[in-house]
Amino acid sequence: MSKPCIICVAITGSLPRKEDNPAVPITIAEQVESTQAAFEAGASIAHCHVRLEDGSPTSDPERFARLKEQLEKHCPGMIVQFSTGGRSGAGAERGGMLPLKPDMASLTVGSNNFPTRVYENPPDLVDWLAAEMRQYGIKPEIEAFDLSHIHQAVAMNRDGRIPGKLYVQFVMGVKNAMPADKDVFDYYVKTVNRLAPDAEWCAAGIGRHQIEVNEWCIAAGGHTRTGLEDNVRLDRDTLAPSNAALVARAVALCEKYGRPVATAAQARDILELHPAA
């Protein structure tokens, strides 16, 4: 269990939840300040969405550019990961920020149900997003909402559409999608280890499941994701005060299980990313 644990912080989602928790950062300045505190607390990856001033989601490349520039300035070496998820855009719009060449970008390789709609990821869009990531030297983070997404990511890795070492994240606890279930988690880890033994994996627990999924990951030797995008409460009654507080909670779990927390440089080495400029 001496392997360093990479902590990803999802700083703000694509849903306008400012009213649920005032700590959720919306503006670029708020996002940078919140991410810097999370970075100093132990996070080595920043998973990024951007929003308009009113809190509504957007895929505006100019906002992504401003955020990336400021994160690289204030969080030196931190891995910047852009979301290409479907809440803030449709079709090719979802990849419009990829020419900015972030270190990583999320990639969901299949469709699934969300609480009130279908999260559509048709094969042609998946292939286009993967091709854009190859062109710009961006490492995909596979967001697996379903078992089939793990199998598809492995197939794309084998045929070269997703080159290099796979990084697979299990997204658990989304209503109508994969449940936050320990037996399911164990099977997903087993599946990744069987099909892609060199891959790295992590998981994200949504809502009240965040802390238990953090612990499952850290105890099992994987990496983990936390942050206000996934959970705005520390428990049923207590609002999370900041992204940094959620990162600190994951760091405490690493200490509990004897896992060192990966520095940004170590995270880059584990994920086979180029060194920070």
Structural class based on helices, strands and sheet pairing: alpha/beta
What series of H and E elements makes up the topology? EHEEEHEEEEHEHEHEHEHH
CATH third-level topology:
TIM Barrel
N→C terminal distance: 30 Å
* Cα Rg: 17 Å
CATH superfamily: Aldolase class I
Q: Helicity level, as a percent range?
A: 25-40%
Query: What form results from the Cα inertia axes?
Result: globular
Main beta-sheet annotation? 8 strands, parallel, barrel
Portion in beta strands:
15-25%
**CATH level 1 class label:** Alpha Beta
CATH architecture: Alpha-Beta Barrel
Which key features would you list for this structure?
277 residues, alpha/beta, TIM Barrel, 8-stranded parallel beta barrel, two-stranded antiparallel sheet, 8 helices, 12 strands, 36% helix, globular
Written description of the protein model:
This protein has 277 residues and is of the alpha/beta class. The protein has a single domain (7-270), classed as TIM Barrel (Alpha-Beta Barrel). The chain has eight helices and twelve strands. Strand 11, helix 6 and strand 12 (223-226) form a beta-alpha-beta unit. The longest helix has 14 residues, at 28-41. The protein starts with 6 loop residues before the first strand and ends in a 7-residue tail after the last helix.
